[in-house]
Amino acid sequence: MTVLDFQQAAAARIVAVYKSGQNRILLADEVGLGKTIIAREVVRQVSVWHQEELHDDHFKVVYICSNINIANQNIKKLGIDSVMNVSDSRLSMQHLRIYQNAGNGHEYKQLIPLTPGTSFSMTSGTGTQNERALMFAHLKRHPLFMCHSRKLKAFLADYAVTYWQNTIDTYEKAVTDCAAINNHYNSDMQHALTSAFTSDPSDIAEQLTTAILNPKGIDNRLKIVIINRLRRIFAKISLEKLEPDLVIMDEFQRFHDLIAPADDEQGMLSQQFLNDAKMKELLLSATPYKPYSTLEEISLDPTTEHYAEFMEVMGFLFHDPSRLAGFKVVWQGFTHALSEISTCGTTVLLATKKAAQEALYQGVCRTERPNRGILDGGGAREMIISQGDILSYTEMQALLDEIKAHGGGKLRDATVPMDYVKSSPYLLSFMDQYVLKKDIEAFFTTEARRAYLKGKKHLLVDQRIIREYLPLPANNARLSLLMDTVFENKKNGVENLLWVPASRPNYKVDGVFAKKQHFSKTLVFSAWEMVPRMIAIMLSYEAERLTIGKLFHDAQTKRGRTYFASREERRFGVARLKDESRDIMCYVSPLLAELYDPAAHIGTDVKALRKMLADKIGPKLTETKAKHRISTSGTAGARALLDVLKLMEGHKTPPPVSVPENALDILVNMAIGAPAVCLYRLLRPDAASAKEAADRIFVSMFNKAESAAIIDLLYRRKNDDAYYENVFQYCVDGNLQAVLEEYGHMLNLNGARLAQEMTDAFADTVSLQMDTDESFADADREKPRIRCHFAVGYFNARLSDDSALRADKVRKAFNSPFRPFVLATTSIGQEGLDFHCYCRKVMHWNLPANPVDLEQREGRVNRYKCLAVRQNIAQRYGSEKTWDAMFALASQTEKGTMPDLVPYWCLTQPNTTAVKIERIVPMYPFSVDHVRYQRIIKLLSLYRLTLGQPRQEELIEVLSREADQSVQDELFMKLSPYYRQQEELV
């Protein structure tokens, strides 16, 4: 990605601040404006400075982010090829990785990604077996413990028995091998350990010696303390050995424990790492401190007061005492003038504001979008309440009342929370891990479940309904609105889409894709963890019911393929692209790829395109048939057609006896839309990657039962040998070449790397378990699994390696044109992650209390070249041949004196913008939802005026009453390097 003008200005300002002697600076650009790209340019400029002027021979950048998903997303954007992979091990072990890397040689620039979960926090236990084995490898070499190696090994084993010796051997070899390539490793580690033992106030060396010499006399709690203390010593050594030149802290607001460390061991680690006055630090965050605190939040918890957080961050930025003292004086003057706005007059106020702005600009840069014209708030509307909504509440409360009447146990005082009922139907199906459901299940261990649930059909999903592909009532106003939004009130056949239609089709075509040119995926944010699971299940079932379900209920196709059929082929089809049909799907044909140049026929009707290609292919086909005496037959299949195509290309292959009667039509479709041919045009000349991607993405896609059902519904079922013909037709109707070109433009990669990224993003169908009336009534029965492909949930807050990998897979899949089309998430998807490539609809299942949270959510899709921008660009400049050309013409036509935010984030003439980011806010009638929403919108427009002020909510009321619009505009802090440069040029 090219560094744009406002990003270049920000990077230059940051480097200038570093050179002035201020080593900490906050880049607080509005959500979605590419802070990581600015960081990349800062890395480039600072590394050149260090190499050419400071004569450094190794430039190390530590990148700290909140979790592995954000790290995986952003590491590649920082422009450093050499990445030291230390995040996959405990901090106490990372010294080994550091020395291994140094011994193997390295490039001048090196990136070291860290996450606080592995890098700065230390649990109070004895750690992993691997940690203790590596510590043993070094401690046994220390003079204090050389003579006690056997006893030391037994002490550090803790409870490890079976694999302890193998683990010891593994890390002994690792240390020996590392020392062989870096002869300073062992000596440096022994020196560091001696220093740590000497300075340790608890005399850990003496405690360890006593413990290993007298193992029976050691209390187990003291043993844990000793081992944990050793882990902290090794962790501190690891941090000391990193020695970074630049530290980038992404989503800085998540690292409060680092900027204000507690007075404990973890705090010592943080201070060791960040309190080096020579180390440059770049903080990235649109919300580095809580930018707004409501009076309600302050009354409930005074520590949420945003002013205190603001000053804490300023104290971290301006850590030099004199700089911080000067800032506080200026800021207090501005605060006083604001509080006296009704009496002090605007002249004094604006003068103090200017001084405060200059003081803040010494440590903070922030650029904001010039307008909001691309956002449509018309989706904030009232919902229709159904009988199912009401019965969901009454039946749940009736169940609790009946339980109370029979003793109740833990539920004797229970009532059903109204927010639960508003957020999800079928509560007992989806409330897994919720205390209320666990208590209900515990009560039923001695009671008859069926008796209590009799007549209550709104608490659990009826398994028979799913089994027979029957309509499953939503019974929830929010869910009904979401379904109507996603499936467009059952119009236009959204369930028949396997990918998002191209924003700019290469040619004109009728069909399901033509009706959905401005289609968008949908991103849903909820406060409750049960909601993403529920949405994934309910919407995926509905999509399957509208496709496979139609065939299930068709008298001619029904053959007992129920939803829970144990074998795939009984459900609907299995691997219909196999053998020869799979071969032709994956065949890369240079001939067909050359015959059709998409850029030369933009806007052509597909009928004319077919005729043009038929005129080119027909004579070649006729000539080949005549030369090899090949006949035409209705029974000929994909193998015969593939052999003929190879003969047409000059390959020496045995000619088939006959070819299909519609061979020319199939070859024309292949030239336009065969996945392998389209991929080859995109990846050319990498035929191998095109073939592999066609197999792993499209063969897998069209072999899914739900895909096969769509193909059969749209084109009538053919026998399995001819299924591939309908697949090619679907790819033509879906403008697959244009879809892949747009996707490739967004990924901004080439060749094998582009193919790999596309392949990695393709998502397999997953399944989620849920309770039904049958499984809940019989506690021993396994919960049924529901297939999730149309919609998925992003909700696992318990981060493990497996869940992190799955979450990263979900993010990539949602950012691809392929399914899933709906992503429901909790707050874990609210910050730092991109979901903008194919989504411009954001549904706020629950309204956040703070306006900043609303911005953060919508900032996930309001980003660089987001779907809304591309769809508008295509509408205005779609006659250009490529996406680069479209954006170049848009910039030339619309940018004017604006920064490169136009056209990459927004366009001019917002009132005539045809496609917008849609904010969907479902509101209950006669509820406080309306008032809360209007209040949030009002605060969104004014809260930035009260940046870093106490009692913001009160101040906003005063400003809206006392200051006219022109004064309000003047009070905005102008912290954008680009806009300030432009003002200086005027």
List the helices and strands and how they pair.
Layout: H1 5-19, E1 24-27, H2 35-52, E2 59-64, H3 68-74, H4 94-103, E3 109-114, H5 116-119, H6 129-139, H7 149-157, H8 164-181, H9 185-199, H10 204-213, H11 220-242, E4 246-250, H12 256-259, H13 265-274, E5 280-284, H14 295-300, H15 306-317, H16 321-339, H17 341-344, H18 346-361, E6 364-365, E7 375-382, H19 387-405, H20 418-423, H21 427-430, H22 435-443, H23 449-453, H24 463-467, H25 477-487, E8 507-508, E9 521-525, H26 530-545, H27 548-553, H28 568-572, H29 579-585, H30 590-595, E10 604-605, H31 606-628, E11 631-632, H32 638-648, E12 658-659, H33 663-673, H34 675-683, H35 687-702, H36 705-715, H37 723-733, H38 736-747, H39 751-761, E13 766-769, H40 773-777, E14 785-788, E15 791-794, H41 801-814, E16 822-825, E17 839-844, H42 851-858, H43 867-877, H44 883-894, H45 901-904, E18 917-923, H46 929-942, H47 952-962, H48 965-971, H49 977-985
Parallel strand pairs: 1-5, 1-6, 2-3, 2-4, 4-5, 7-18, 8-10, 9-16, 9-17, 11-12, 15-16, 17-18
Antiparallel strand pairs: 13-14
Helix pairs in contact: 1-2, 1-49, 3-41, 4-8, 4-11, 6-7, 6-8, 10-11, 11-13, 16-18, 29-32, 31-32, 31-33, 33-37, 34-35, 34-38, 35-39, 42-46, 43-44
